[in-house]
Amino acid sequence: MGGRCIMCGRLVEVEEFNPDSYDDYEDEDLQPKKSSILICQLCQAKLRHEADEAQKIPKPM
Ligand SMILES: [Zn+2]
């Protein structure tokens, strides 16, 4: 059983979609709830990267 990544449409194997890994990023508000929403590892990495970039944006003077 599997699903498609909501970001890019890649097929995602549920086995490799490990909700337990979310414990590593408990401060990520953009992570969807642990429901049937699937995001492939590539897009997860991308989201994390974008989140990091967003935090790097300096405050406007
Ligand atoms: Zn994806």
Automatic annotation (TrEMBL):
Q: What is this protein called?
A: DUF2197 domain-containing protein
Q: Give the originating organism.
A: Desulfofundulus salinus
Q: What is the lineage of its organism?
A: Bacteria, Bacillati, Bacillota, Clostridia, Eubacteriales
